[in-house]
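Continued from yesterday's entry.
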Amino acid sequence: MTSDTDVTDAQIAGLLLAVAALIGEIRRKGVLDGGEIDGALQRLADDIGGSKLAQAAPEDPMIRATLAPLEQLRRMNTLFDEASGRFPDWISKGDEGA
């Protein structure tokens, strides 16, 4: 039997992979480069980290949970291969530090 938590985790993983695919397509088309995408994700993380809740309780599980997908997308962004337009080794390297 699969728990609700397992299903939720799988849904979040699927969403992150979908966003990574969009990031890859944006990079492949030359709309934004890896540094610009990383910068956008970092600015969002900085905004979250600068929120009143994060300042009051930086170790709050909700803050960490909100930042985790941004960190994962930043890792995925570094794995993008310009030549193939894909994310080789994303399973092993994308999970590092997770």
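--- second protein ---
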Amino acid sequence: MPRKDLTDLVRAVLRRSAPGDGFAVRIDWPGYGPVLVCHDFTQFSPTLERALRRAASTERYWSRGPFQPLAVTVVPIDHAAFLAHPRECPSTDCPTTAPLLGIEGKDLTKRP
């Protein structure tokens, strides 16, 4: 293997995040019955850039149809949680975009 290729490979490996960490596309759907909103996680990606591209592609795909999602966002999630997550989940405890926006851990109900 040429030295330049080997150097590029080593840099790519060192640049990766911890094993299992990554991002997924979250699609929020209108609910039914007593559930007002449910969501799915799709397209797990190890990098934020790839996840953002996939979210844009997902949004374009669903925008052409008669049944459109309420929101398409990118969320930080580990791979094990992504695989274990149920379809059409109504839980409000699942990952959201809040950490990416810098508001994780802040109580948004309190006024300064």
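The mean pLDDT is 79. Strands lie at 21-30, 37-45, 71-78. Will compare against the first tomorrow.
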